[in-house]
Amino acid sequence: ISLLREAYTAMHPGLHRYATPAEVESRFDAVDVYFSSPRTMGQAFLAFTRLTASIKCGHSYPNFWNQSRAVQQALFEGQDKLPFEFRWLDGRMIVTADHSRERQLPRGTEIVAVDGTPARTILDSLVPLARADGSNDAKRVAYLEVQGRDEWFPFDALYPLVFPVRDTLFALAVRAPGAAVRSVTVRALTLAERRTQ
Predict the structure, then answer these.
(1) Which among 13, 19, 158, 189 is least buried, having the fewest CB atoms inside 10 angstroms?
(2) CA 194, CA 84: separation in Å to the nearest integer?
(3) Are 62 and 22 in contact (CB under 8 A)?
């Protein structure tokens, strides 16, 4: 944290674009205090992610691609990925492709809750961790979608760190188009399985 503070203070051209020097120092101080107690690798990654996101620079974040292989395996490759692609539409998590074994999530299904946590709460919890310039929250929301064939999806990396996955199954509250809310259980995917979809 001291090295990050020194580097950002000396070299980051936008460090004070959206915050005063005192506000930036306060954020670094808070993370310094946080690390005065032992932290897990996941807690450390989240702390650095939250700190860099607060600078509101889309280029400043703990890059998934640049982590050591050991960090990637420990934090990002577990069987803790939601088995579908989705978009955020007006704060609602909408399925665009179902990759679950159960095939109970047709395109257009709304995921109302995951393991009892409302989808909107999930989004609100992750937006402060998303990288984007300035107050561009629309970019942050889009950053937290799972679409297409990217090597890493930020949602896949951040969601299990904020909402630890208890086992390899997700209990979902879902609303298919034109239907009532119902409960389904789906098996979580590993990163390797996500990449083969």
Answers:
(1) 13
(2) 9
(3) no
The two tokens of residue 134 are: 């300035």
Rounded distance between C-alpha atoms, residue 16 and residue 22, angstroms: 9
pLDDT in tens, 40-87: 999 999 999 999 999 999 999 999 999 999 999 999 999 999 999 999
At residue 79's C-alpha, the angle toward residues 50 and 103, to 5°, is: 110
d(CA 95, CA 86): 4
pTM score above 0.70: yes
CB crowding 67-77: b at 16 or more within 10 Å, else e? beeebbeebbb
- Segments in the chain forming alpha helices (H): 2-11, 21-34, 41-53, 69-76, 119-126, 137-143, 154-162, 191-196
In tens, the pLDDT along 122-157 reads 999 999 999 999 999 999 999 999 998 888 899 999
